[in-house]
Amino acid sequence: xxxxxxxxxxxxxxxxxxxxxxxxxxxxxxxxxxxxxxxxxxxxxxxxxxxxxxxxxxxxxxxxxxxxxxxxxxxxxxxxxxxxxxxxxxxxxxxxxxxxxxxxxxxxxxxxxxxxxxxxxxxxxxxxxxxxxxxxxxxxxxxxxxxxxxxxxxxxxxxxxxxxxxxxxxxxxxxxxxxxxxxxxxxxxxxxxxxxxxxxxxxxxxxxxxxxxxxxxxxxxxxxxxxxxxxxxxxxxxxxxxxxxxxxxxxxxxxxxxxxxxxxxxxxxxxxxxxxxxxxxxxxxxxxxxxxxxxxxxxxxxxxxxxxxxxxxxxxxxxx
Length: 320
Hints:
Blueprint: E1 2-3, E2 11-17, H1 21-32, E3 40-46, H2 59-63, E4 68-73, H3 81-89, E5 96-101, E6 104-106, H4 110-118, E7 123-132, H5 144-148, H6 154-172, E8 184-188, H7 205-217, E9 220-232, H8 241-244, H9 247-264, H10 266-269, H11 272-275, E10 281-283, E11 290-292, H12 304-314
Parallel strand pairs: 2-3, 2-5, 3-4, 7-9
Antiparallel strand pairs: 1-4, 5-8, 6-9, 7-8, 10-11
């Protein structure tokens, strides 16, 4: 673990990284040039990037950026965002914790806006992800506005619109804890801000933390669509099953979903939107494996047969 001395910070920026050399470099440059007088502690938590391999290692990126106060690495054992973030939380000293993924480029006012929203305590501040694709030719000082001016491919534009609609709907609903998705979130620091490390693979560790803070500790959700990061649409390191369609990513997400429902008691959630996310997963009659349906083809509510088929494929016993 690399550490640098800092004064007591106002805000701790926690960056989850895995091999994202290009976007991580820009992310850190944009943290360095934030328009704020706040004292920022920057922590990069690495989910197992291979050490000593120049084409993968991010250590040389960190050496060129003086703002990184802590770098902590964990052994690669699948995608373990919850564990990696907890490694950073233990080092964090700010009164507000900002969680960014390594493929995010923050707007110049992001730290200030997150801090102003979350500093009063018991708040989860949720920002928005603009989707653009970085280029290998991008200079280290390419600006946020230059990236925003780029064309957005139709597929990325559709994801962006769907996400904005979801966030607006969730924020206005009886279950606003569904808002924290993706790596652009700030939380008022307290002892209860700890991720459940039983969530392995992509998805739902953020919902789990949000639900616990809202339900058990009276946190409230604030969503600001103008609180922006640019998300690099290069998915080479993604474990999102809706992107990768990878069998192990699909199974990991489904296992997380069933664990979430068991942990929080599905009947008490009173929220069809939560477990209806399983609508997009079906067991193929031909292969016996789990497939993902297109978004528009998954409107039918889940039923007991559908759930039992998924559980049998995943070798899960009991009810969810």
